[in-house]
Structure formats: structure tokens, C-alpha cells
Fold each of these.
Amino acid sequence: MWRLSAIFRRCITTSSSRRYKKDSLFIIHPDVKEALAGHRPVVALESTIITHGMPYPHNLSTAKEVEEIVRAEGAIPATIGILKGRIHVGLSSDELDFLAQSKTALKVSRRDLPYVISKGLSGGTTVSGTMIAAHRAGIPVFVTGGIGGVHRDGENSLDVSADLTELGRTPIAVVSAGVKSILDIGRTLEFLETQGVCVATYGDSKSFPAFFSRQSGFTSPYHVSSPQEAADLIANTLSLGLQSGLLLAVPIPEEHATTGQQIENAIQTAVTEASSKGVRGRDVTPFILQKVSELTKGKSLQANIALIHNNAKVGSRIACALSKQKH
Ligand code: PSU
Ligand code: MN
């Protein structure tokens, strides 16, 4: 009798996640740890953009510039990535350098995490992978360039980024320049609605931005015009215990949006080439990004860098406004 009840107690107190949880899987950088403990603003940053989104050395310089912008705005940057099977929240300069030059780093979304960790591999975390780690570390604001979405022809291929389902299940605010027109923007917005994701454009436009251009032809469900208003959305998502994320879409600054039509043509060519070459699954987005940069002779890369800088500024201001609200 005693034995049985002891076993029963063990079963109800030892949930399977607790039994297998290893805190050493996460390494939180001391600066990030200190900021979180002091309830100071922290901004999470992804690393697939470093390992798969941009060529070396632009990937490294951009990653460092973005961290500097976050610091200049009064927040602490936490670039998230995987090194030898451990999830790092906040990377040192050498660690950033390693990921930027690595030829073997994997692209890590939710589904890749168990494998990469089991094998002790290294990788850049996508929006989905980064959201998971940021949430676990207690960082509600995450800045990136662009998120994944429903691919063109996605209604047939079912190529729908795990970023969208992650936004539906993890309460993190993702600050991005919207969705690239390499994707089906209309279906992406529909899917985000189904997933319960609160989508708002930041600034004075009501249009949902399309990464390289300020307009996508689609109106954003909502619109906020200050860091405070954006922080209110995040605070209320958290106080409602919604468990779903937010997408804050920041249009590319006007002065960098001029190459729109040229990039649009390059995207068309790249999407067609990806499909005729049989590029599939996780390779599609990196293939198209690289091709578009090549076709526009680096102009898309310059625009990409400019919008990430801007997102970092806006996201940091939102993180600062949110941290003031909480305390
Ligand atoms: N869009 C970009 N640059 C990027 C990505 C998307 O402009 O680097 C990366 C992000 O990490 C995003 C991922 O989470 O690609 C989406 O990949 P997929 O479409 O395979 O889900
Ligand atoms: Mn995909």
C-alpha cells in the first residue's frame, strides 16, 4: 500500500518534461542574466540570418552592428544560437565569429532542436528556434529582419514556415519588416489569423509591409504608432496568458525602399529558378535570398542590412517601454 502510493506520488510530481529537463542545455550569457535579474530590457536576436541569411563578412558585421544599436538604445542584446549542442542566449564576439564563418552550422527550427542537441552540433536558430529559447530565458521582445511564411504555391506544397505556428504557440513579440514577397503574403496573413497571432504595423502606415517595400497591397489588421502602444500589446498578451505571439511589422525606412521594382523582378526569377532546380524544404529561403542578392548586385543585401538596423532601434525602444511598464 505504502509502495503504491509512493509510486503514485512520484508519477504525479515527476512530469516527463521535468524528468528529462537539463538546465545545462541553456547557457545564458552573464550580461543577459544580469539584465534579466535586474528587470532591465533585453532584446533577443536570431542567428539563421548569420549562418544562412547573409554572406560572410556582411553577416558578422551586421550581427555586431545590430548588437551595438540595441546597446545604444539602452537594452542588452541576446543573440541566440547553438554551439556544440548547447543553446546560447547571448553570444560572445568569438562565438558570433564562429557561427558567421561556420560551413557546417545547421538551420535550426523547432523540429531540428532535439537532433542538433543530441548530436552536439552547432546551428543558427530561425525565428521559430529563437522564439523557443527567448521564451525559456524570459525575454519577450525579439528583433529580426523578416520572418518565414506561406510560400508561393504553398497551398499545394504545404511549405509553410514553422515560424508561423511558433507565433501561434509562444508568447514572444517578433519585430520584423513584415514578410518578403518571395512568399504568399495574403495566405501568410490568413494563416497568422488562424494561429491567433496579433499582427500590427508599427509607424504611420496601415499597410502590412513586404520587407523591401513599405507596402504589400495588404492592410495590417492593426496599427501602433509608438513603443508604448506596442509594449501595451505585449503586456496585455502576457497578462491574458494567451500563449500566442505577436508580429510587429516595421516598414523599411523610405530612403532604402527605392529599389523595390528591381528586387521584385529578381524575386520572380529566383522563385522560378528554385522551383525548376527542385530546391525544397529548408533550402528554399536561403537559396532565394542568395539569388536575389546576386541578381540585384548586392542591393537587396544593403536594403536588408538597413531594415535590420531600423528594426533593432524600434525593437529596443519597445523593450525599454515594456520594462518600464512592468516595474
Ligand atoms: N527571411 C529573411 N532572412 C532570413 C530568414 C528569413 O529575409 O534569414 C530566415 C529566418 O531565420 C526565418 C527563416 O526564421 O529564414 C525561415 O525559413 P523557412 O522559410 O525555411 O521557414
Ligand atoms: Mn519551408
Amino acid sequence: MSARLRIGLVSALPTALVALLARGESLFPLLFGVASTTALATWLFVERPIRRRLLALETQRGELFHSHTTTVEDLRRERDVSSSILETMQEGVLLLNQQDQIVLVNPALRSALLLSAEVIGQALQQGLPRAEVNELVRQARASGKPEAGELVIDGLKPRRLAVRVNPMQTPVGSMLVVFFDVTEIRRLESIRRDFVANVSHELRTPVTAICSATETLLSGALGEPGSAMMFVQIIERNSERLRRLVEDLLDLSRIESKEYKIEGRAVAVAAVVERSISSLSARARQGRVRTDVEIPSTLPEVLADDRALEQVLVNLIDNSIKYCPPGSRVVVKAKAESDAFVRISVDDSGPGIPEQDLPRLFERFYRVDPGRSRDMGGTGLGLSIVKHLVEAMGGEVGVTSRVGFGSCFWFTLPSV
Ligand code: ADP
């Protein structure tokens, strides 16, 4: 109720009372009117605004509570996502505080470095006593920039981890150390380096032979029929070796590339074996090596690419003819190994292969006797081409051999 209204009411009331009493009239209607007006005014000007204010405050409180709950939920969700990322990561993660104490280690790093839960809170040198990591952290602190290095882990399964130390802005002075497993990458790099070195070496030998034979011819030997013939034969032999090497390298790179597609069709093994043997019959006759076939007529067909299968067989039979002394025997056999696979083998009665060489025999350029292989026109790639082709057709390769008794190169193919 406004002050002016209140003063008006208060001053008008005694005058009205006196007038009524003078006239001898009842005071009740007046008093009733005053009371109801006062109650109405109180509700209008006091109670209603207070209630409205209270209601607004209540709504505000509700909104505040809701936004607080949402913020807490968001923070919890973010924390869950972060810890789930850290737990799922294959890379190891280590967090250090300003004093180089370990604050966090994710499960990948725990299992890679066999760290216990106690490392949390320990100094880096104590929790992870690896000089390489400590040195990288020291360098990153000194330079304020990321530092990278590698860590070799010995053991049953030796591994190589790339380590990257990243200084962080927040929390101030923290260091994030990330570990990646680069064992496989380094292994492939070393295979590639060896391969390039081997190819260069293999190419250099015939190229050098051709160059020096040509030079000798040009510097006078051309006029001497006896020596000229010898040098021309050197050139022919080495250019043939170069051709074979380039062909095998191209085959290998084609097979290893993603574009190489094996056309799997139902193939009758006996027919491909006959074709392979007849393409090598002149070489077998020349080396006085007998070739036989033992394949049952009931043999199921195989799911294969017949050109790839022929190349596999030619490489294996050719090796047997190449390495077996005159009078040896080579037998191509095939039998159903199970309901799902057919096993094909090339057995010979040749010199055999020492046991220590067997595990590496299918590697590129691996030879038991490099000199003999080169003399026989070998490139050292035949068996690795065999392995790639058989595996591309869904089979496996293997070898059993005993020095002095012969060798058995075998492979399997899915039967139809
Ligand atoms: P290469 O071109 O030298 O023959 P391969 O990859 O075909 O290359 O064979 C690798 C090596 O395996 C050969 O150098 C040889 O030492 C050995 N080898 C392969 N087949 C036979 C076999 N039937 N008997 C004896 N040694 C073999």
C-alpha cells in the first residue's frame, strides 16, 4: 500500500467514525469496508510481489542446479572419453609433472615396459630407469622443444620403440612422452635395404663381366678368333643372366604388388604337371635327369590360376634338374591331403640341403651355395616367387631334405 493512500485512510477514518457516531449509525459497515480494503491492498502491494519474487528465485535456482548438473556430466563424459582413449591407444603414453615425477602411464606402456602401478608418483629415473628416455626428457626441458629417439627392449621378443618427448603448456612444466612400436617398420626397412644391396650386387656381377669382355674384344681380342669366341660367349652368358634376373625381379614385384590378381579357377593338376615337365624336357635330357609323375586319376581339381601353378611347378622342377647330378630322378606327386586341400610335391634324389639352410630357403636371394647357383644360371629368386604364388592361391609351401638323400619341395592348394 502506498504511503499517501495509507495517510489518506488513517486521516479519513476518525472523521468518518465521529460522523457516524454523531448520527447514531452502526459502525460495522465502515469497519468491514476498511478491513477488506486493507486486506486487498496488502495482498496487492505486499504479498503478490513477494510471491512473484520467490517464484522467480525458485526458477533461477532450478536453472542453476540444472546447468551445474549438465556441466558436471559434461566434465565426467570428457574425462571418460579421455581415459578410454588412453586405455585403447596402442601407443604408450607417460605424463611427467614439473618435477619429473610420473603422473600418468597408460596400459599400453605398462605392458610394453612391464611397469607396476607403483610408478605413479615416482621420479622418472626411479620409475623408468632408461638412460635414453631420461636423456630425451633432459634435452626437451633444456630446449623447450619436442625431442625424439629410440628405445630397444631386449627379451624373448625384442622390440624397438620410437620415443617422442613433448613439452606441454598446461599444466606448466609437464612433459608428455609418447612411445610407438617401430619393430616391424625397422624390420621391413632392413629387408628393403638388404634387397637393394642384393639386387645391386647381382646386377653388378654380369654387367662388369659384359663390360670387361667387350673392352677386351675392342682392344684387340676381336682379331683373334679363338679368344673372340670365348669373350662373346661370356657376353652371351652374362646377358642371359641379366635377362633372367630382370624377369624374376619383375615377376616378384608384380606378385608382391596389390595389382597382381590370381584368377582362381578349377584346374586339373595332372595336365599342368605334364605341360611343365614337357617345357623342361630338353634341360632334363641334357642333365640326364629322369622325370616321373605319380598322380592318381581320382585327384580332385584345385582352385588355382593355371599359369601361376605352371610357374610354381617349372621353378621347382627346374631347380631339381639344375641341382641334381646326372642319373638322378625327379618325381612330381599329388594327393588329396584332406577334404579341403591337395598336396603337390617335387621329390628328387639330388644332393639334399643342409638342415640349417632350410628355414631361410624361401627368402629372396638366399642360396645354399651362391657360386654353384650362379654357375647354374640361378638368380636366387625362384623359391621366393614360388612361395608368393602359392600363398596368393591360398596354399602353403615347405621343404624337407637330407644331405645325400635328396629334397622334397611341397605345396598345398585348395581343392574344388
Ligand atoms: P636359384 O636361382 O639359386 O636356384 P632358388 O630360389 O630357386 O634360387 O633356390 C634357392 C637355393 O635353394 C638354391 O640356390 C639352391 O642352393 C637351393 N635349392 C633349391 N632347390 C634345390 C634342390 N632341388 N636341391 C638342392 N638345392 C636346392
